Amino acid sequence: EGSENTPSSRVLLRVLVLVPLLLDKGFFIYVGFRHVRFGIDRQRGPRPEVGQPAPAFTFPDLQGKEVSLSSLRGKVVLLNIWATWCPTCTDEMPSLQQVHQSFRKEDLQVLSVSIDVLGSQVVAPYMRKYRLDFQTLLDPRGTIKQTYATTGVPETFIIDRQGVLRHKVIGPRDWMTSEMLAFLERLVKSG
């Protein structure tokens, strides 16, 4: 009878052709226990190493003003890469806000970079809903994922006053633990 061209065989053929293509392009999002992972990303750059200068970037904030990492030199920067659609990102936002409030009068800047494709359209309402007032930048193209070689969201990078990467955290954290607060305090007090 030859090959059958039934609807189910056509669907199977499409799946067999599309799945490897989508995986190759990194379109799938895997949800792990504590971290939303991206698919395979062959565009990722070299992984930033602790003790090395943090990679530079410039993105607009919610008001459209361009902000670069280099403009924050002289402050400790807690850089959080996240997205509104990420449940574990939402879980850690309250403790990031607490760190922001606790260090408001010191040289520590909580700086979040959203990779949401819709940018301020979704990020601004999210910030209002959760009463977050730390500085947030918009990267709708997701270029920071390559710059910082991230594997998913959230990921956080702690950068010292000289612009050197001092700590990297994959997945959400409670930023108000005594150990983390002591670490941040040491960085703020170091010259």
Which structural category do the helix and sheet elements fall into?
alpha+beta
Tell me the number of strands.
10
User: Whole-Å distance between the termini?
Assistant: 80 Å
Count, helices = 5
Q: What share of the residues does DSSP label as strand, in percent? A: 15-25%
What is the global morphology? globular
Query: Largest beta sheet, briefly?
Result: 5 strands, mixed
Helix percent reads 25-40%
Taking strands numbered 1, 2, ... along the chain, how are they ordered across the largest sheet?
7-6-5-9-10
- Rg, rounded, reads 20 Å
How would you characterize the overall build of this protein?
This protein has helices spanning 7-25, 87-102, 120-129, 143-147, 178-189, and strands at 29-31, 36-38, 58-60, 66-68, 76-82, 108-114, 135-138, 152-153, 155-159, 165-170. The chain is 32% helix and 23% strand. The termini are far apart. It is globular, with a radius of gyration of 20 Å. By secondary structure, it is α+β, with helices and mostly antiparallel strands.
Secondary structure layout:
Layout: H1 7-25, E1 29-31, E2 36-38, E3 58-60, E4 66-68, E5 76-82, H2 87-102, E6 108-114, H3 120-129, E7 135-138, H4 143-147, E8 152-153, E9 155-159, E10 165-170, H5 178-189
Parallel strand pairs: 5-6, 6-7
Antiparallel strand pairs: 1-2, 2-8, 3-4, 5-9, 9-10
